[in-house]
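Protocol step 4 of 6: structure prediction from sequence.
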Amino acid sequence: MQITEHTRTAAEELCDAVRAVSSFSAVVTLLRTEDGVNLSPAGWLLSGGVPGEVEMTEPANGGGPGARVLETGVTLVYSEKDNPPGNLPLWASARGFTTGTVTPLVKLGLPFGVVYALRRDTEPPTEHEINQTELAIVHGSRMLPMLAGSLEGDDEDELGGFSPVVYESVRDLAPLRFDGLLLDPVREQARLSGVDVSLSRTEFLMLYTLGRQPNKIVPHQVLLEICWPDDFPALSAVDATVYRLRKKLSLAEANAGKQMVKTVRGKGYMLAASR
């Protein structure tokens, strides 16, 4: 993860959202570095001044809280009653924090960072507070840009053969051309066999995502998170969008939509094409 100014702004907004729905006095967002070795601070609301980046960096592998959350993909809860304060990283316990949660940041089923929500207290957070914190983090994670390429060790089989190459904006990518189909991400326009196909932004994002790795299954959840980054639609929204997409493609060329966008039952969709 390259921590740009845009990334820091999004991370700080996430921290602010967690503070707004909870009683935690400190929130820190750590993102996996581009080489996958460490978790590095991107944004924080933390008393006692701005922390040094080296001080707060954690190994992405090992026995620390951040590494455990990356490995399991579930929230860890810490409290003075149940865990010694020393179980928290040094940068947290040195500031007197004893209670809190460590929650994964997840996109496309892959943890790419963690969020610490902390306070100086002996009482553990309530279930309601944990749930609200997790909801705020899920929403905030959609605003954070992801890795420019696959993480080392990612298992494509877990995503049905789809390698999680993701992007901050579809406009950052090059045009795609195959089987008479041209996808122009700058103008968000599609042309099939010389005929312009009018697509909504969501429909274009879906077709472009399928076209990034043709003949590979893209799971429903991947399409949901890429095509609706700021919303929380039902999973059926993917099927409805694919239906409209096929219909528009078929108008440009008989049966083209049905031939190109294929359903893989129980797994997702794929763009069947030769390049």
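Step 5 (inspection) to follow. Residues 147-160, 163-169 have pLDDT under 50 and may be disordered.
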